[in-house]
Amino acid sequence: xxxxxxxxxxxxxxxxxxxxxxxxxxxxxxxxxxxxxxxxxxxxxxxxxxxxxxxxxxxxxxxxxxxxxxxxxxxxxxxxxxxxxxxxxxxxxxxxxxxxxxxxxxxxxxxxxxxxxxxxxxxxxxxxxxxxxxxx
Length: 136
Prior knowledge:
With about 140 residues, the protein is an all-alpha fold. The protein has 4 helices and no strands. The chain has helices at about 5-35, 60-85, 90-100, 105-130. It is elongated and about 75 Å long.
């Protein structure tokens, strides 16, 4: 099995998993902790009747969403570094791709662009390899 394909496949999977957890963190767990419930720091509304334990500073959503996101993001960064070393990315590109996992939805867009770019490079390399040698 080609390690370049393994590293790139791992990067792609982790980009999506990181993105999904980041969206959950940004739009579910953080609002539940800080915006909903009487004990929330910036309480905008009361917690729904019977579901009070899911909201406020002790929200278990932080355990189920924030903690896994942190660990998954660390693995994502290592996968980005692995791909960057295999494919000889610049430091700026590597940093940009790694940071894309910190902004909701941007990770999906960057992953799509990276895949298109890498596929184009592979196609161009394949065409160069396919060209017949000319006698000179």
